[in-house]
Write a structure and sequence with these properties.
Number of strands: 8
Largest sheet: 8 strands, antiparallel
Number of helices: 1
Distance between the termini: 54 Å
Shape: globular
Radius of gyration: 16 Å
Strand content: 35-45%
Length: 126
């Protein structure tokens, strides 16, 4: 096992990735889609003093210089519910490779969970 990811019970909209060998923990702050359909969701995190954010589910940006450091493209498979995709990381950004991979998986899981979410009907009895 390389890492685990858990949803934080005490802080809604936050997930924590913990790398097993180093015991390093990184908090992912998930901001929901804003102004429906206009601004994509955003997930932010900080590692070694550098701040990054996922713009939507595809582009990982280094906030210090607004540079694209990784890009994920999902490929849906017709034969199953599983998804696969391509994650391309910019040269020189290999130090965040594991974090880019795991944050992509967490985001994909959150997106899938929202898609499957069932909103209960409220019935009022008089």
């Amino acid at each position: 096992m390389i890492a685990t990811a858990e949803t934080c019970e005490d802080k809604q909209g936050t997930s924590t990735i913990e790398f097993v060998e180093s015991s390093t923990k990184v908090a992912l702050e998930h901001l929901p889609r804003r102004m429906v359909g206009i601004l994509p969701p955003k997930t932010t995190f900080e590692v070694e003093g550098k701040k990054y954010h996922w713009k939507g589910y595809t582009d990982l940006i280094d906030e210090s210089n607004n540079k694209l450091v990784a890009q994920y493209t999902a490929i849906e498979l017709e034969s199953s519910d599983n998804k696969t995709g391509n994650l391309v990381i910019s040269e020189g950004e290999e130090k965040i490779f594991d974090l880019a991979v795991f944050s992509t998986v967490v985001q994909q899981h959150r997106s899938d969970a929202r898609t499957r979410a069932v909103i209960p009907r409220v019935t009022t009895f008089c």
